[in-house]
Amino acid sequence: MVNAMGWGERLQAALKEAGIAALITFALICVIIGLKTDIGPDGLEITQRWDLVASGVAIVFVGRLLLRLVVWGPEGQGRGLFSSIPKAREMPWLGKVLGVALLAIAITLPFYSGRYVVDLGILVLTYVMLGWGLNIVVGLAGLLDLGYVAFYAVGAYSYALLAHYFGWSFWLCLPLAGILAGFWGIILGFPVLRLRGDYLAIVTLAFGEIIRVVLLNWYQFTGGPDGISGIPRPSFFGIPFSRGEDGFAATFGLDFTSMHRIIFLYYLILILALITNAVTLRLRRLPLGRAWEAMREDEIACRSLGISTTNTKLSAFAIGAMFGGIAGSFFATRQGFISPESFVFMESALILSIVVLGGLGSQIGVAIAAIVMIGGFEVFRELEQYRMLIFGALLVFIMVNRPRGLMARREPSIVLKERKAIGADLVAQGEGHR
Amino acid sequence: MSAPLLEVEGVHTFYGNIQALKGVDVEVRAGEIIALIGANGAGKSTLMMTICGSPSPRDGRIVFDGEDITALPTHEIMRKSIAQAPEGRRIFPRMTVLENLQMGAELAGVTDPEREFDHVFELFPRLKQRLGQRGGTLSGGEQQMLAIGRALMSRPKLLLLDEPSLGLAPQLVRQIFDAIKKLNEDEGLTVFLVEQNAYHALKLAHRGYVMVNGEITMTGAGRELLAKEEIRAAYLEGGRH
Questions:
Q1: CA-CA distance, A302 to A300, in Å (whole number)?
Q2: Is 0.80 surpassed by the pTM of this model?
Q3: Where in chain A do CATH 1.10.3470 domains reside?
Q4: Which CATH architecture has domain B1-81+158-164+181-241?
Q5: Which positions in chain B touch A413 (Cβ < 8 Å)?
Q6: What number is the ipTM of this complex?
Q7: Mean of the pLDDT values across residues B158-172?
Q8: pLDDT at A330
Q9: Averaged over A352-370, what is the pLDDT?
Q10: Do B210 and B37 meet the contact criterion of CB atoms below 8 Å apart?
Q11: Which CATH number fits domain A96-426: 1.10.3470, 3.30.450, 4.10.320, 2.70.98?
Q12: Residue A340 to residue A227: CA distance in whole angstroms
């Protein structure tokens, strides 16, 4: 086919195709972009912007022409939407580049965006941290946990109650919340030591509900459904973000704006999330992390090698829970108000979806999934009652096209000479779960 | 004669109320290859697992290297100089060959596994070619090599092998058994082997035990057992395997 077609014919075919694409573009954008309504003195005024439409159509025409002539060649462009996403095996550097780019965007975000975006960034980063925390339990150790939100709640209530009853500061309570949540992780761990798979999932689900129901009904202590309000805001190492003499703005000679605190919160959760990531990556190279992964692969083989599955499971629950707890206390200080409403099963499901969608065990995948899910939630806010529908459809769509998650690849933690990527597509699904 | 490396004395093992082992005595001396043969469900694998402490015996005693290990938890038993290649190979499918081997060394406290790596690659050159490959993508024979290699990484004195020939082509079975023989002859590694493939196992072993319904019914030198009429009839029907 390729040889049979001369240059002239190819050009003709490409021109025709580009023309069709340009026509479709025109039909799609002529009203949406071409006509703009502004509020004028006598109601709405229509502004016509045909120059914009023309340039849009031109871009599509030239782009399609070039794609056809230079990139795709005369035939086909690959089937399906996802075929344009490169296979992990073909581009082993992609994950790294993506990671660096995402980090750069995350660090610089507050400099060029407004309050809404930074607020959204805080929300996304909270879920990135929760996802990375749960990733230790589900992704690395292979223990399906449907009640992760319990640890999030323990962390949030630890800080709220300690601040409420004893007036302890955020910085003191942050590590305490982590320790307390880790402790609850061990308490959950003991009864489920002998359980696996579905049975484990049910017990963790029940555990999550127990925590929520206790918080809801222990009115004298937790305030029950009224929640706890007036949780103190974090200070900048002792300097409060308030208007006045000893506030943050006055101390550093800046004009007071409420953005200072939001930007501070943003960087705080960014650092907390990055710590979670660093600890996870480090642990993966240590015997403990290796044992987690080995346990996910085959528990009997682990025992035959002298791994204590008890210690391995408990440590995974404890460390995963600890990060959940720290994220929880951050959530409490950011909101200033918490109630059991925030810790329903839906949250657990959301965090778990982020981990599964991202590709079990993949750090960068979890980050991308958190952006897609939480960001997507915000984008579809307009649609209100259809939001969950779209959310569900998105999940199904991604799982059908990428059955092992967006980043379905496991980097070996040690290599001899070259780093060989391990494509998920090489191994049948369900391998290692006998 | 030297004291036995592994001594199993009057071991009774139960699964719930069902008795799987009814007073088993087995003795493995240093430098020996011992084969345990028997039909399906005779309790061969149960004995192997009882030695490893999962399940623990209800009665009887297991002594390894002069130390009573009967009541120890599995992970502590496996950190002694015992290594096991479990039934069904059970390699880590999503880890590379290199990582699988490292798992074997790491927990046993072998921090400089260079010598062990060379040793395993000399025994199974195929593994060296597959170093960066994921365990689950190996063929059955390669997986068995990897399982044995992983067990050897911990510098064991005693190697327990549970059905190493399971599901392998005859030529690969021969390769695996040759490797076991080499390990025993060149390095004096003690091997306790559970097998259904009675012909190969008894040909290789110094001594053999025959297990029927949770009891040892016969014992003797490997070739002696192989020559016995009742063994040939029960386990070697159809002649050569």
A1: 5
A2: no
A3: 96-426
A4: 3-Layer(aba) Sandwich (3.40)
A5: 99
A6: 0.85
A7: 91
A8: 96
A9: 88
A10: yes
A11: 1.10.3470
A12: 7
